[in-house]
Each structure stands twice: as C-alpha cells, then as structure tokens.
Amino acid sequence: QLYRDARECLTLLSQRLGSQKFFFGDSPASLDAFVFSRLAPLLKAKLPNGKLQQHLKSLQNLCNYCTSILSLYFPWDGGDPPTSTPRAAGADGGEAEEDPHKRRNQLLSVLVGLAAMLGYAFLSGIVSIQRGSAGPGGRQPVALEEEEEEE
C-alpha cells in the first residue's frame, strides 16, 4: 500500500510539473525546494529495494528536474554524486589524509560553541562579573571561597 501511494504521488508530481522547468514556471519556489529535497536522494542514493527508484527513473521529466536543479545550484559536481577521490587517497595513507585539518576544525568548532554559550550567558544576565568596588551600603561583595568558609 505504501509503495502504491508513493508511486501515485510521484506520478501526480510528474503530471503537475509537465514540461515546465519548475512547478510554478521559470523560477523556483519553496515547493521546488521541498520536492527536490525528497526526489534527489531517491534518485541518486543506492537503495536496497529499488522499486520506487525505478518508477522515478521512468518519469523522465522528474529526472530532468532533479538534474537541472543539481547542475544549477550545485555546479561543482555537475549533477552527479560527489566523487570519492579524497577517500581513495585516504585508503592508502589512512584516515588522516582524508581531511588533514579535521582535528583543527573540531577544536575550532568547540571553541566557537563555547564562546557563543559564554556570550549568551553574559548577555542574558545568567552570569555577571562584579568589579571590586563596594556594593550598596558600603559592603564589599563576598567572594565565593570566603562564603564557603563561613558556612
């Protein structure tokens, strides 16, 4: 039942698209982004059961639609899945060659995340820094260590 419904949906999408470049004419709309996000993986991925993929491939206008969007918005791969050149090089030299800056990128992303969290904490008032000046009533703020000793 599920495959039958999915095939019917693909057929209806194909009929609605017709010979147009996009669903609403010559320029893409949010519907095109949504439909493409569902069709491209179905068209390009290797699936264990290819029934639905074969049906999509039989609908030539939907295949052309996906290929057109891939080549228009993702020109670096010309509409084809990314090549595995870096992985082939990494297979000989280990995983370090696959992305030589992987550790640096991980460290940088952790530092940026930490800075963002600290910035949010300070700006929202969750954490504040008090200067060494006297507080209201001439009292000096008690440091955290002194407070623990008093208890």
From TrEMBL:
Listed SUPFAM superfamilies: GST C-terminal domain-like (SSF47616)
Pfam assignment, any one: GST_C_6
GO biological process: mitochondrion organization
Domain of life from the UniProt record: Eukaryota
Keywords tagged on the record: Membrane, Transmembrane, Transmembrane helix
Ranges for region Disordered: 81-102, 132-151
Entry's transmembrane regions: 107-129
Metaxin glutathione S-transferase domain location: 6-69
GO cellular component, as recorded: SAM complex
Record flagged with keyword Transmembrane: yes
InterPro entries attached to this UniProt entry: Glutathione-S-Trfase_C_sf, Metaxin_GST, Mito_Protein_Transport_Metaxin
Xref: PANTHER family: METAXIN RELATED, METAXIN-1
Identification of the protein by name: MTX1 protein
Organism per entry: Nyctibius grandis
Gene, per the UniProt record: Mtx1
